[in-house]
Design a protein that fits this description.
This protein has 610 residues and is an alpha/beta fold. It is built from 22 helices and twelve strands.
Length: 610
């Protein structure tokens, strides 16, 4: 009984006996692990769990030291058998890697030989992880409790303590070189929250795995990072400034309302004296006419509302009037990130005292980040328009500023052997309870299961995909790892997982066989970063954001949203005014995104709300 499967089965049987019938939900509550993690451990599902996870469950079940040592022996035997099956291939993969970057080897082998550490690069050698010494009453920190990005990094340091406080050099070896010692040191320093990026998101995942967490737990940490990385730590001064800004905004709004009421009263009195036969209803209609006219004007010249400086077209405003001093936050759509970053660089080159921070956290999260208190310094990036009856538009008065057209692509892993689909076939793939589940159902398709990789609920890109392409909702979620259905969802028709960002969708489609998803076309076209991703034609048409592409359905305007009109003289006001200039149009052209505002300061037809 020397095979990995046999050794693992023997280890699981022994582990369950030692646990003495302790319930999985009870162990999860005591350890801080996910209920699904504990159930998978006791059932022997999936990969061999790390000793960090196993020992935490043993301690929670009250297993004593002698028995723990015996379980450790069986666990080590299973881990060694795993190495016997896959170790040679891993060593060969590293030896063939001449440039010393192990990313692809890690993607391939991290679940096959998870608990080995790199000891020497040349010649390549591996050995089991050093058995850690754990503290009493271990409990895994919960990343969902992080209330801002600084707190998240505090919890990341606590995760390291939970794992037995491995040295930074050991974490580097456990991560097979993807986390150099200096990078780990930077991740754990107190001011790491000042820098956030998709690269950091990947590092958080590698760090969590190097601390012994399985895939489901790693996803929890990565998702927590995605959630909080745009939430900056607060301090008393910032709170006071926000409160003062809110009071000033309310005062200005009250003064404006009072002036408008006086103007309407004067107009009504003038009309009454001029035409005594005019009815009260007619007088009210005339007095209120200016409100509908102002709405119509805003629809034609979109950047007039709240801007208050310079002309709107032709770049005629002086450079100083379009520049602000300080920091502006652009938060939201991950598909919008590339275009926003090009605009950011161009604006900062023009206005050296301005700083723009782009945080791609998803359309829905971007809208949630808007408040009356940050209206002067925060703009949300959103794929397409918010619904007119949404709370943000109807109750809170959000203002939308169309920026540019963006094209999205339906993408698939190259091993599907599919280069294009009809809209009818695509909709059949995404049908709720019917339709094909294997790529061999299509001409030339490979013998692989169809795996749908979707964005999470609230994503602007997903909303556009459902509204413009599918003409209906996506099917139910059935998988957490995108490879197979979860145990509780095996009855669902198709394998479908969700990812919280565009980068995660592209990474998954690039690495998981048989996958199909969707992403912004320029990023999806990066063959060096995503060599296995193929852009599919829809009804024979390939994606582009050209205004003439009226028959390609996966195109939408990217919208900047503010919480009400931005205050005159604010960073948001200056930036939005700049977007109507010739300089901004040139930047958008550089990004391959047709500008929504024409040189005549009109809103192009494809960018108008339906």
């Amino acid at each position: 009984m020397d095979s990995y499967a046999d050794q693992k089965a023997e280890f699981i049987r022994d582990l369950v006996v030692r646990m003495g019938g302790t319930e999985a939900d009870d162990l999860a509550r005591r350890t801080g692990l996910l209920d699904a993690t504990v159930r998978a451990l006791l059932a022997g599902d999936g990969e061999l769990m790390s000793w960090e996870v196993v020992s935490a469950c043993l301690a929670a079940a009250g297993v004593d030291g002698v028995e723990v040592s015996e379980v450790r022996g069986r666990w080590a035997a299973a881990e060694a058998a795993r190495w016997e099956e896959w170790g040679g291939q891993l060593v060969g993969a590293f030896e063939r890697n001449g440039n010393g970057k192990p990313t692809k080897a890690i993607e391939t082998y991290r679940t096959k030989v998870p608990w080995r550490q790199l000891t020497e690069r040349y010649p390549v050698t591996f050995k089991p992880w050093t058995e850690p010494t754990f503290t009493v009453d271990r409990r895994l920190p919960d990343p969902s409790t992080a209330n801002d990005i600084r707190h998240f990094y505090v919890l990341l340091a606590e995760l390291r303590k939970w794992a037995g406080s491995p040295r930074q050099s050991e974490i580097e070896k456990r991560s097979w070189g993807t986390l150099p010692d200096a990078t780990i040191s930077a991740m754990l320093q107190k001011d790491r929250w000042r820098t956030t990026s998709d690269r950091e998101r990947t590092r958080v995942g590698h760090f969590a795995r190097a601390c012994g967490l399985p895939a489901a737990e790693i996803a929890r940490w990565v998702e927590a990072y995605e959630r909080v990385r745009h939430i900056l730590p607060t301090d008393d001064l910032a709170g006071a400034r926000a409160e003062g800004a809110e009071l000033r905004r309310r005062l200005a709004a009250a003064q404006t309302e009072a002036a408008e009421l006086r103007e309407r009263l004067a107009a009504a009195e003038s009309e009454r004296h001029a035409d005594p036969d005019t009815t009260t209803a007619t007088r009210r209609w005339r007095a209120g006419r200016r409100w509908s006219l102002s709405v119509a004007t805003a629809a034609v010249v979109v950047f007039a509302a709240g801007a208050g400086v310079g002309r709107l077209a032709g770049g005629a405003a002086s450079p100083g009037s379009l520049c602000f001093t300080g920091t502006l936050h652009l938060v939201g759509s991950t598909a919008f990130e590339r275009t926003a970053d090009i605009i950011r660089r161009g604006y900062e080159d023009r206005c050296p005292h301005a700083k723009i921070e782009v945080s791609a956290i998803g359309s829905n999260e971007g809208v949630r980040a808007l408040t009356a208190g940050n209206a002067a310094s925060t703009v949300a990036m959103h794929d397409g328009y918010l619904a007119p009856d949404s709370d943000e538009v109807r109750l809170r008065g959000f203002r939308g500023y169309p920026v540019a057209l963006v094209a999205f692509a339906v993408i698939a892993n190259r091993d599907t052997n599919v280069t294009g689909l009809s809209l009818r076939d695509l909709r059949s793939i995404y049908a709720q309870n019917t339709g094909p589940t294997d790529w061999n159902r299509f001409k030339g398709g490979a013998d692989l299961p169809i795996r749908l990789v979707s964005r999470t609920e609230g994503s602007g890109t997903r909303g556009i995909f459902e509204e413009h392409v599918l003409k209906g909702p996506e099917p139910d979620l059935s998988s957490s790892d995108c490879r197979r259905k979860d145990d509780l969802r095996v009855a669902l028709h198709v394998i479908r997982c969700e990812r919280s960002s565009q980068a995660q969708v592209l990474d998954t489609v690039d690495t998981v066989p048989g996958t199909i998803g969707y992403a912004e076309v320029h990023v999806a076209s990066d063959a060096r970063r995503y060599p296995n991703v193929r852009i599919l034609a829809l009804d024979g048409r390939t994606p582009t954001a050209s205004r003439a592409m009226d028959r390609y359905s996966f195109v939408a305007p990217e919208i900047f949203y503010t919480d009400g009109p931005p205050p005159n003289g604010s960073s948001a006001s200056a930036f939005l005014t700049f977007l109507a200039t010739d300089d901004a149009r040139r930047l958008l052209q550089q990004a391959g995104a047709p500008a929504c505002v024409t040189p005549a300061a009109l809103l192009s037809a494809p960018c108008q709300a339906n």
